[in-house]
Amino acid sequence: MLTVKNLGSGYKTTDGYIKILNDINFYLNKNEIVGIIGEIGSGKTTLLRAIRGDLYIDSGDILYNGESIFSREVYKRYREKVIYARQDSLNILKPGYSVDFQIKKLFGHGKYDLNYVKRIFDYLDLPMETLNNIPSRLSDGTRHRVVIAMSLMIRPEILLLDEPFTGLDIDAITGLLKLLKEIKDYTSIIIVSSDVVPLFRICDRIYAMRNGMILEDGKWSEILYKPHHPYVYDIINAIPSFENRNREFTFTNNMVNNGCVYIKRCRFMNESCKSEILYRYDNDHGYRCIRYPDWYNDRDKER
Ligand SMILES: Nc1ncnc2c1ncn2[C@@H]1O[C@H](COP(=O)(O)OP(=O)(O)OP(=O)(O)O)[C@@H](O)[C@H]1O
Fold it and tell me: Residue 81 is part of which domain span?
């Protein structure tokens, strides 16, 4: 359904072009939920925005059902199918109109189904009184849940969720995960989240990013139980409920000119990591690590 090929992208600023994404290869199948994990500033949101077609593309392509979205006609069709929901999404919510009015407008007044709205609100732990309020009077957390609820109600073909779990309590996260599983029948979803636990509960596949590059991708269970890149291994070990709960893990943003972007933090690095690292495949499991499987086989010695 969606294929990103060798994508390079970034921001045009008054100081010139800032390249953020490098050589991104990514795909999303129909009825699939894909997660993007990575440290702060690794380029997750930039990738979502590039996928939506918001950013300047300096190389590569984005294909929607096999056609480049950079053709004007395809772009128009594509944009109607994609919803991008983030916490400060005022592209979905208009600050001055009641939530109820905006939902009715979304459905078209004749098709408004209060039971359906209630069901989605219940899942997200949103009181029905929220309907009578205007967004500017709602708390950030409530507004965030309203944005998610409305993006789910639209039933888009592709839903891009940026940090959907932020500010939600356990009940609301569980409700949201249930809803996402339900809407998967008609919506394909990409989720960016710094909270990786819900992603491993819901996603079919996961991509891991650092410094604007994808360092690993694969089926969620492959990534969780057999990471091929030490960066991903460290992210997983930093999850408190998983093994090795005492290990501390702090993210740093180390720019390097050549070689692996995780070289300065990696306990398994050697001289070979300073050379150019190509993306390799182990069946469907992709990774950008020259030391796999050696580091993986040696990992217990390091503890
Ligand atoms: N509008 C912009 N103009 C210039 N640079 C930007 C812009 N937005 C983001 N960046 C830069 O792009 C890089 C990637 O940021 P991005 O927000 O995509 O990362 P992220 O992985 O989503 O991080 P976070 O978890 O903090 O949201 C950062 O270095 C950031 O400073």
Answer: 2-225
Domain end point (choices 173, 207, 225): 225
Q: Measured between alpha carbons, how far is 271 from 3 in angstroms, rounded to an integer?
A: 34
135-186: pLDDT as tens digits: 888 887 888 889 888 888 888 899 999 999 987 888 888 888 988 998 898 9
Query: Which of the listed residues 14, 19, 20, 194 should we mutate to test ligand 1's pocket, taking the one with most ligand atoms within 8 A of CB?
Result: 20
Residues 79 and 211 in one domain: yes
Residue nearest to ligand 1 atom 14, measured at CA: 43
Instruction: State the Cα–Cα distance between residues 242 and 70, nearest whole angstrom.
Output: 42
Domain boundary among 180, 206, 225: 225
Q: Any idea which residue has 């409920």 for tokens?
A: 241
Prediction pTM value: 0.87
Q: Is the ipTM of this complex over 0.95?
A: yes
The verdict on 28 and 67 lying in the same domain is yes
> CB of 18 closer than 6 A to ligand 1?
yes
Q: How far is the CA of 213 from the centre of ligand 1 (A)?
A: 13
The contacts of residue 292 (CB under 8 Å, 6+ apart) are: 228, 229, 282
pLDDT, tens digit (0-9, with 9 covering 90-100), for 36-58 = 999 999 999 999 999 999 999 99
